Amino acid sequence: MENDCHIGAINRVEIHDHVLIASRVYISDHSHGETRLEDLRISPHDRPVVSKGPVVIESHVWLGEGVCVMPGVRIGHHSVVGANAVVTRDVPPYSVAAGCPARIVKSFSAEGGADDRQDLGKTP
Q1: Within 13 Å, how many C-alpha atoms sit on residue 31's CB side?
Q2: Residue 92 covered by a domain
Q3: How many domains are there within the chain?
């Protein structure tokens, strides 16, 4: 784990073996209230802290510089999350996710090599 990382948990954040976490990474399983008008009228400091579900980062994952992993997300083993991505949904194993919000841009077969790769997001 590099410098300036923030991990906040009121329920559960799991980080499995051999995970590389770059600088300025944010991981949280909670938020300050809901995004309802009633909650927005309350100062964020005074809103109740609510768990949105556990975060699970499986083994052999690489989280790039400035990544945000939001509540209720599972990042599958042997995956890469690109710099400054905001992960709001699960990332399957052997995948590359990037963007804000993060989306899967590449997926690999667990059995195959580079020849079995699927470039997602590119038009044929």
Answers
A1: 13
A2: yes
A3: 1
Q: What is the mean pLDDT of the chain?
A: 89
CA-closest candidate to residue 103, choices 122, 113, 90, 119: 90
Active-site residues: which are they? Answer: 32
Token pair for 15: 């980080």
Is 124 among the domain residues?
Answer: no
- This prediction's pTM: 0.84
Q: Give Cα separations from 23 to 2, 3, 16, 65 (angstroms).
A: 5, 5, 18, 5
Helix (H, G, I), strand (E, B) or coil at 116: helix
Range of the domain at 65: 6-119
The one-letter code for the residue type at 72 is G
* 42-61 pLDDT per residue, tens: 888 898 898 989 999 999 99
Residue 1 placed within a domain: no
**Domain containing residue 71: CATH number:** 2.160.10.10
Q: Which residues neighbour 43 within 8 Å (Cβ) at sequence distance 6 or greater? A: none
Taking residues 20-42, report their average pLDDT: 91
